[in-house]
User: Fold Threonine aldolase from Modestobacter versicolor.
Amino acid sequence: MYGIDTDGPGSTSGAVDLRSDTLTRPTPAMRRAMAEAEVGDDVYREDPTVNALEERVAELFGHQAALFVPSGTMGNQIGLRLVCEPGQEVLGDADAHVLTYEMGAAAALFGLSSRTVVSDGGRLSADQLIEQVRPHGDWHLTATAAIAVENTHNRGGGLVQPLAELQRLFDWSRGAGVNVHLDGARVFNAHAASGVPLATYGRLADTASVCLSKGLGAPVGSVLVASAERIAAARLWRKRLGGGMRQVGVLAAAGLHALDHHVERLAEDHEHARLLAEQLGVDPATVETNMVVVDDVPAPAVAEAAKAQGVLVGQVSARRVRLVTHLDVDRAGIDRAAKVLTQVVGELTGR
Ligand SMILES: Cc1ncc(COP(=O)(O)O)c(C=O)c1O
Assistant:
């Protein structure tokens, strides 16, 4: 079995852990911010730190309101429910996290149908999706209520979606009665790589879920942004799903700290990914953000041999490994990983 974010449980202390950017641990400064956070009962909307985080993220992404949720999965699934009714469908890429890696949640929880197109390695083509949209009011067809996009695209190796395609899809959707949901688990990486303002990405979606716990390094948390009306409905869905949290300002404080200190530095992770790619002979054009995909290698054997030398990599398939750079891997770690992986891949493939 090949997981997207895991190579199985186990102690990893001291290792250079490139399995995922979800593996970061809160920094000492982040922990201090958490310890000092002002808190209240957030279900009563009395947690000042959560309120501050929600206001800040809504503004950053150019939306009226926001909701702090425990995970990207909850942000995505509530986001989809806001823009799609039971019995309608969400259309997206076959490798989209929301449709393929969230355990069928949209169907299991909300009765949403989904349909997928096979994209060019995750890269968004507005026309490819538009061609597949099915109308409302047909006697037989499942109406397409929403289109889900992912930026950066995880299975696409961290690729940044072309702004022109996002714009074209959103412009088209206005006249078509179709909503757009953005899975922005790594939209901060997209912003750091492309220079496109976060508000531009945000405004090209009706609902967007953005993660604080990926490249930004917070231990927990995502934020869903949308109109004030939709976020009021989202608050009810979050409570129904058991996501109503209490003195959760301690976690929101980590998110605020990450927004203050960990956005600019994503460029460093991207530079580290490029360095790794260069040293491993991976085409640097395939490395747009913080992920390096190494193809045509015996993934389980590479993972095992690298682990024995203290370097952890993700196995995406039998012949593909993935390296994700992040806050907890510094330049020395990158050099060490490059050395170990060059040797291991060389020995196992003869290249
Ligand atoms: C693209 C993408 N979307 C959503 C998620 C879900 O986030 P979470 O693990 O916080 O539920 C992930 C997790 O890695 C992801 O990679």
In short: Residues 1-11 have pLDDT under 50 and may be disordered. The chain has two domains: 16-25+265-349, 37-261. The two ends are 26 Å apart (CA to CA).
